[in-house]
Amino acid sequence: MKRTNLDGWIRRQEGAQSLGREQIEEIQLRKLNILLKREKERGGFYGSLPDRLDTLEDLRRLPFTTEKDLIREGHRMVLTSQSGIERVRSQETSGTAGKAKRVYYSAKDNGRTVSFFAAGLSELVFPGEKVMVCMPFSGNRGLGELIAEAVGRLKGIPLAAGTGRSYGELLDMLDFERPRVFVGMPVPLLSLLRLRPENSLERALVSADICPDTVKKEIEARLGTRLYPHYGSREIGLGGAVTCPAFEGMHLRENDLIAEIVDEEGRVLPRGEWGELVLTSIEADAMPLIRYRTGDITRILPEPCPCGSAVIRLDRVRRRSRCPVMEKLDDRMFQYEEVVDYRMRMEGDTLYAEGYLRKDRADFPEELEGYPIRYRWKTVAMEDMPCYAGKRKITGMEKR
User: Using one digit for the tens of pLDDT, what is the confidence trace for 19-31?
Assistant: First the structure.
């Protein structure tokens, strides 16, 4: 089996001849100490930390960084001048009085993300192929722009589908451009495949939202190939972990990130146990984070990857939230092939589903996950838009 292309990317980035665990951990400790020295000299948010550690295990002695820290003290975490900032990515939060979480990126940070994206996409994108990019395009090296740049490095042809097009516009792009590869969130991909069973798509990378088993299995059956899940977040430079040809977990960008899994009390767990993912971004130029509690639940797979890489792998990732029911609802609702998409809201103790069907159906369940549910369906029209432009959630439940 071919080894993950991420191995070659890491070796080229680091000038390493080989890439075993010893080499990976030497790279991580060296970069961690460079970062700690920068932080000590800067005297900002992390200025009170030691300027070096003797071992990676010593990292466990350092305090965690939380989302609240990032919201309240993020400006003190920036290590570059304002003139060195190329992009600020903001996200409204449900906590901390709804204040925005801001993450700062330099041109170097964005360039490295493009390079990493290209490494991950090289598993499924080949020269001359068109790639349908259904991620947000926001200008000034936004996520969609960075993915498109990575596709171009692979001599592919990016199609900027974005997240604001109607089903008719997306299907026209499928019909006339005939892309081979899709990059985007899983449910919008399933919707397109249900609306246009005969199409040109052969491969897909899914990211930015949870992919329930029902959705994953049907997409793979319709494409005739395995999906390439990707994990990333704003806090770690968008790109974090990518799938290899073994399709057994996602290899972490370990020359740029140190991962830990902790329990609810913050104790580090051994490989194989599920817990919260904690990341330290040792290569970030503008805004490194040390022991950042992501709120994402996963585990580090304990066995060696069948592809032969020594780079650790994350299992599937779920977001810890006060609204975990959406994935279970999607897993159930998309068992009905008539469903194109739906949005969900909660009022009182009742769930209300509103969405699109390919054709009428009357026997949907009256109760899901212990909640009574009411439906409002319409036959999908070409001018209709996907129900969610971002992550899927139940409106109203997050306040409970």
Answer: 999 999 999 999 9
